[in-house]
Amino acid sequence: MNLSRPLLIKNSPALSRLFGAAALLAALVIPLHASQLTGTFDGVGTLTPTGTPGIFIQNFTGDGTDTTFGPFNIVGQSTVDFSNPPDFTITNGTITLTFSNGTLFGTVSGEGVGNGQGMGTFEGDFLIAGGTGPLDGITGDVTLNGTIIRTSPTTETISASYRSTPEPSTLALLATGLLGFGLRFRRSDFSIH
User: Fold this and answer.
1) Contact, 145 vs 168, CB < 8 A?
2) Is 61 within 8 Å of 74 (Cβ atoms)?
3) pTM of the predicted model as reported, rounded to 2 decimal places
């Protein structure tokens, strides 16, 4: 055996495929986090004055359907500031989505615009902090878009849709997987010295 020559693996598609498949698998499995959340929900919010004019604590209960995980109940609480009409802000929010097999929970914030006649539209950001059951370990950023209709001085109906935002790490992992496959086709040999 000649040990002075470098070990050369010519046209080793098996090794290239192994590295490419490992990178692609990491890109596809790890980003399960919030990358698959899409759905709608609606419910009723109850407004409790805080003592500061135009600022309320909102308690929300409702239900919805997620395209991946199915039906859920939703409860939340946030501070809503209506003191600068027609704009309003949503801060200090928490939300819990309870599915038949687990929960997702996190924080929410957002802003919206009212029409001056008891109706408004909003966009919010739901930062998923975690989950339970099979949803344990899910994290990510979900964008909410919806409407609020005031039904009395202290109640409102809320309808919204949501879609998760791919995380930068998810996009980086996917790019790494695709790069691995691209390099496989560009290199005709792989050498180990």
Assistant:
1) no
2) yes
3) 0.70
